[in-house]
Amino acid sequence: MKTFNTFRACHIASAVALLVLGHAHAQNTTEITITDTAPSQVSGFGDVPLRKAPFSAVSFDRQTLQDIGAQRVSDALRLDASVSDSYNSPAYWDMLSVRGYTLDNRYNYRREGLPISAETMIPMDNKERIELFKGTSGIQAGTSAPGGLVNYVVKRPPTAANDTIRSVSASYGPGKSSSVALDLGGRLGENKDVGYRFNAAYEDLDPYIQNTQGHHHLLALAMDWRITPDSKLEWEFEKSERQQMGVNAYSVLANPNDPYGVPSLPATVDGKLNITRQPWSVPGAFASQTGSVRFKQNLSDGWLWTTQYGGQRLKTDDRLSFALGHNCYGVLDTSTGATKLCDRFTSDGRFELADFRSNDERRLVDALQTEVAGQTRWGKTTHHLALSLTRQRQLDRLPALQAWNSAGEGSIYGGGTSQAAPKPEYPNTNKSEYSTEIAVKDRMALSATTAVWAGLRYTSYSRSSEQNGICDPVTYVCTPAAGTNPISSKGNITTPWIGLTQQMGQHMVFVSHGHGIELLAVPNTPGYTNAGQLLDVARSKQTEVGIRSLTTADRATPWSWNASVFQIERPLTYDVADGSLLKRVSDGQQIHQGMDAGVQWRSAAWSLQAQGQWLHARISAATLNTALNGQTPVNVPTMTLRALAQYRFANIPGLRTSLRVNHEGQRRVLEDGSLNLPSWTSADLAAHYDTRIDGTRTQWTMAIDNLADRDYWRESPKQFGHYYLYPGAPRTLRIAVKASF
Questions:
Q1: Which residues contact 568 (CB under 8 A, 6 or more apart)?
Q2: In this structure, how many other beta carbons lie within 10 angstroms of the beta carbon of residue 6?
Q3: Are 138 and 181 a contacting pair, CB within 8 Å?
Q4: Which residues of 397-417 are buried (b: 16+ CB within 10 A; e: fewer)?
Q5: Which of these, 608, 616, 699, lies nearest to 646 by C-alpha position?
Q6: In this predicted model, what pLDDT tens digit does every residue of 173-211 receive, in sequence order?
Q7: What is the largest CA-CA distance in the chain?
Q8: Which terminus of the chain faces fewer neighbouring Cβ atoms within 10 Å, N or C?
C-alpha cells in the first residue's frame, strides 16, 4: 500500500531539520495574517472587509491552520460554532454541516473563487487560508445547499521584490503519524516581475485509530507574472494523492426485547477501534490534479477585468469494509428467520459486513469565468458594480459495476467470520451537468454610513444521469450496459440577494435576504429503488439580521463582538419504505432558526474569544410521513460553543499557551426524539514557542487534544437509511516545528 518506503517522513524531517539548523545565512520571512477584517474572495464584493458586509463570514488564516495542525478542512472549520460534523469519517472526504444543513460536496466548495468538487481528500499544505460564507449561498453559486460556502485560497508568491520564503516544517502525531513539508517562494527577473511559490509535503499516516495506516503527498506550484503595470497573469497547480484504510462508524444497538423498539447507544465509546477492518480490506485511494489560471487587466477609471479558468481531475478508488444492519438483505441467518435490522446493529453488537469497492471513479470539473468590476456614480449614489459570466461542467464517470456484496459478519466487540467478495455486481451511475451563470452585483453607497447591497444570478442548467448496468428483477444479477435508465433535466433559475448596512458610530447593523437552489439526487446505493435518480429543483431562502462592532480587538479597544439571528427554509428530503428497500422523496420543509454570537477581548498578555450558536430546527408540511412534522432533524446540535484563551509570556519572549474548549449540545439520533446523543465538551491545550537558532527562525508547537481524555459520541448521522455513530478522538499528542531561513 505504501509508497516512498525508503523516505519515511520522520527520516526526511530529521535530515531537513539538520540542514536548516546548520544554515548560517538567515533572512526574515514575511508572514501575512488574514483575519475577518480583510477582503475575502468568498464575499464577492471586491475589497470590502468581511466585518463591513451584510452577511456572516469568517476566514481562518495560515497561522491558525498551523497552530491547530490542520490536515483537512474539517480541522479548521470546526473552530467556528456554526460548523459541525455530518457523516464525517476520519479517513474519507470531509462532510460538514453549517447552520445545521449538510454542505453538498459537489457544489458548496470553491478554490480561488472557482467551483471544485470536494468528493476527494483536499490537501491543506499549500493553502493560505480557508474562508467560510455562512447561510444561503445563491449569491456566489448557481447551485448549492444552504448553510454556507467554503473557499480555499492557495499560498501565493510574495508581493515585495526582495521578500523570500524558505521554510520547512515537520510534525509527529496524533498517533504515530509523521509529516514533513517544504515551502519556497520569491521573485525572479531583473525587475522581479515573475513570482513563484512551491510547496511539497509527505505524510506517513498511522493515526490513533488502529489499522488505518496510509500515506499522503502533495506537489504544488503557484506563479504570477506582472506583464505590465496594468496586466497580471497568475496560475497555480497542485497534484496530490492519499491512500488510507477506511474507518466505518458504529451504530445504535437494537432493543433485545423488541428489535425495532427504541435502540440504545453502545455502553463503551472507543475511538481507537476500526471495527470493520478485515485481513482482506483494501485502502481507499484519492488522487487529484487541480489548477487554475487567471488574467487581470486594469481598465480606465479604476475598472478591473478578470478572466480565469479552473480545472480539476479526480481519480478515486472508493473502498471500505462496510458495516450494515444485520441480515439487512437476507444474506445471514436465513435458516433461522432472523429479524432484519437494516438500520442498526443487533443488541449484542453484531452487524453484516459488506465488501464495497468502486474502483477508478473519475470526476471532472471545469469552470471558465470572466468578470468586469468597477465603480461609477449615478446622481448622488456611488455604485460598486460587478458583472460576471461563468460556464461550468461537472462530469462523473464511474466504473460500470461496483462491488457492494455481503462478506460475512462482524461485531463491535470483535470476532465474526468474513471473506472478501470483490466481484463488481451493482451498477454505478454516471452524471453530466452543464451550467451557464450570469451574475450582477451592486453595492450602492447611499451615504458615508448607509449602503444597499444587491445581487441577481441567472442560471441555465442541463443535467443528466444514466446507469452503467442492467439488473434482472428476479435474480438481481447485473451486467454492464451503458445508457440504462437515462434521466435528464433542463431549466433556468434566478436567485436574488439583497442586503442593507447602516453604520452607527463604531457599530454596524445589517439585514439581508437571499435565495439558493439545489438539484436534488438520490444516493447511488443498492438500498434505494430510485438510486442515482434526479429528484427535484429545490429553492432555499435565508433572512439574517445582525449587529457587530467595527473596531478590532487591540490595546486601545480591547473588545470586539458580533451577533446575528437568522432563518433558513429548505425543502425536505427523506427516505420512505418501498417494498424491502427505500425510496428517497422530496416532501415538506426544514426550517432552521438560530442565533450566532461572538466576543473577543485582548490585552498585552491575554487573548480571549468565544463564539456560540443556538439553533432551533424543525420539520413541517411533510405529507408522506406526517410523524416528522414538528420534529427536530437528526444530528443537528441545539447549542454549539467554541472558546479560546491564549496567554503570551512577557518574561519568555515568543512563548504563548492556549486552551481551546469545544462544546456541542444534545442532538437527536432517532427522528422521534426517543434516543438522543448527550452533549459533550472537550478541551485542547497547546504551547507555541517562536525563537531563533543560529539566526534561523523556528516555531515550535506541542499540543494535547482532548486533554481530559473524555469518551463521547461526536455525531449521529443517518446515511443510506442507516443510523450511525462516530466516536470522538481520545487524548492525542502532536509535536511540530517550522524553520524559516
A1: 99, 100, 101, 135, 136, 146, 147, 540, 541, 542, 591, 592
A2: 6
A3: no
A4: ebbbbbbbbbbbbbbbeeebe
A5: 608
A6: 999 999 999 999 999 999 999 999 999 999 999 999 999
A7: 84
A8: N
